[in-house]
């Protein structure tokens, strides 16, 4: 769900208005109400259908949605951060936004018309069940996070690309390492590459990320869940912030991200990203290679492929 919200914030959902602004020749009008352009904000909050859905689910807070998508998303995140509210109340907005997108696609591509009330009831039940099965831990979230060190597979249909960069001040080069695994955890590919040296560790992370984004695009992969362990880079990318330190590198990354609208970037702790870390630090003393691909995992990597997600 957070993954979905990331795309909404980044403006990466392919709504009619987005496609038009990219020069694709289609009607920008919302096919549900026919009244306004189908922007992400319209689809998820302002459209009559969205409004009815939010009301059915008892979220009066969105009766008068803000004009800027970012303000509405801030509200959703604020609700999530309010620890006094019940788990259902905190999590439901993620489900509703995701459901509105899903229901919109069903309408457009399968001619399925869902009544907002039916949707709301169906999803309220789903959320209650989900909350029962996954109690949200309010008090010990820090220790909880520290304990989870195992790599986690991406959702069905997605490929996870863990990446990491190594940077040392006096070296003429920097390195990036990456590893691809599917939703069953199966190994797909790993590799490392040397890149021109940069000035700071953050630039090295960004430069490495740009390289793997380009590589995934080149490989023809379109649903990729990138995962790195640099929180600062993840925040800059996900909140559409500017960064003097990254400069043009950030422009390049943003440009390439638009080519992969179904991808996202998440942040994990170092332990979960260990395989990529080992790859970017792997050093071959007498190698003249600038990059290396491993179609099957090399022996020194096997220890970092966790059971049951090994092969
Ligand atoms: Zn509409």
Automatic annotation (TrEMBL):
Domain of life according to the entry: Eukaryota
InterPro entries membership: RNase_H-like_dom_plant, RNase_H-like_EbsB-rel, RNaseH-like_sf, RNaseH_domain, RNaseH_sf, RVT-Znf
Organism per entry: Microthlaspi erraticum
Gene Ontology MF terms: nucleic acid binding; RNA-DNA hybrid ribonuclease activity
Domain spans labelled RNase H type-1: 162-282
Protein name as it appears in the record: RNase H type-1 domain-containing protein
Taxonomy of the source species: Eukaryota, Viridiplantae, Streptophyta, Embryophyta, Tracheophyta
Domain Reverse transcriptase zinc-binding per the UniProt entry, residue ranges: 1-54
